[in-house]
Amino acid sequence: MAEKTILPEEQRCLWERMLAEADGDYRRRRLVLLMIEFYKKPMEDLLSEHTSKPVSMRRPERVHISSGVRQYGSCRMERGKKDICFLTFSRHLFFEGNLDRLRNVVCHEMLHACLPYSEGHGRRFRFFMEKINEAFGTEISVHSPEETIKQTEKLYKYKVVCGSCGNVTYYLRAGALIKNPELFRCVKCHESNFRIEQLR
């Protein structure tokens, strides 16, 4: 049975220090690669145990740091190239105090790199996601919460504030909520009382 892989305090302190100093893409990439190196074998062992056959994570051919605010991470694979993948992570994940959320996104994309090309977020992905969370003490989810990245107003075009409870959300585009706020209710208090601010 695969052992639990709880992050040792020494490792956590090192990663938190690196995260606080990750002011460029080289340092961000270096931190991601250390996380991959730490979790790769335990993840392969865990998946192998539950599939009764050896599972190998594809080798990251490239780890790219993007400026994306809607996609926090991605794992791209190409047909016919079974052994490699291309990983991307938003640079807005890298800020002091965000280690656990960053780790969740990295492990999420690593799980994609271990599963078949066409799996997506299907049944097997969700099954292994739960097993990894149990074994690693992570909180991988299919969709990461909004606070996973640094929410700064300069990233977005619209700010929507609930006039009843003060809940704030940001948007890049003028979607249905921006155009017709009276048709929607706040996810927290269920009131329809929005104030919309155009940021740029």
Key descriptive features of the protein:
5 helices, 2 domains, three-stranded antiparallel β-sheet, 200 residues, three-stranded mixed β-sheet, alpha+beta
Task: Write structural notes for this entry.
The chain has five helices and six strands. By secondary structure, it is an alpha+beta fold. The protein folds into two domains: 9-148, no CATH class; 153-198, no CATH class. A three-stranded mixed sheet has the order 1-3-2, covered by helices on one side. It has a three-stranded antiparallel sheet with strand order 5-4-6, with no helix packed on it. Strand 4 (158-162) and strand 5 form a beta hairpin. The model has no long low-confidence stretch (mean pLDDT 91).
Distance between the termini: 54 Å
Major beta sheet, specifics? Answer: 3 strands, mixed
Number of domains: 2
Radius of gyration: 19 Å
Strand order of the largest sheet: 1-3-2
Q: Proportion of β residues? A: 15-25%
Stretches where pLDDT is under 50 for at least 5 consecutive residues are: none
> Approximately how much helix is present in the residues?
25-40%
Query: What is the N-to-C order of secondary-structure elements (H for helix, E for strand)?
Result: HHEEEHHEEHE
- pLDDT averaged residue by residue: 91
Number of helices: 5
Number of separate strands: 6
